[in-house]
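Researcher: We're teaching a course module on how sequence relates to structure. For the next exercise, students receive a sequence and then see the predicted structure as tokens, so they can try to spot secondary structure elements on their own. Here is the exercise chain.
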Amino acid sequence: MRGTGTIYTFAVHHRPAVPGPSVPYVSAIVELDEGVRMLSNVVGSPFDQLAIGVPVSVTFETVQPGLTLPYFAVRRAHHPSSSTNDRNV
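Model: And here is the predicted structure for the students to work with:
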């Protein structure tokens, strides 16, 4: 797997449902280029740069000692004005 894909859908969480990540944070279903969809977080981008179809790539973050998770970040070459934002949650 290349670790690249696009945002299929996403949500910005402003209140924690359970103890865990600091709010606000973004969870997303990412459609990988290979066709598989996976649930993860999108990190490192302002919320106004996120939209359905925005290209992302995997990044790994250690959330606690011994636990590293795959997150996604917007690919730098993306221009937010070229995407549509008609299906975000």
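Model: If you want an answer key for the exercise: Strands lie at 4-13, 25-32, 37-42, 55-64, 67-74. The radius of gyration is 13 Å.
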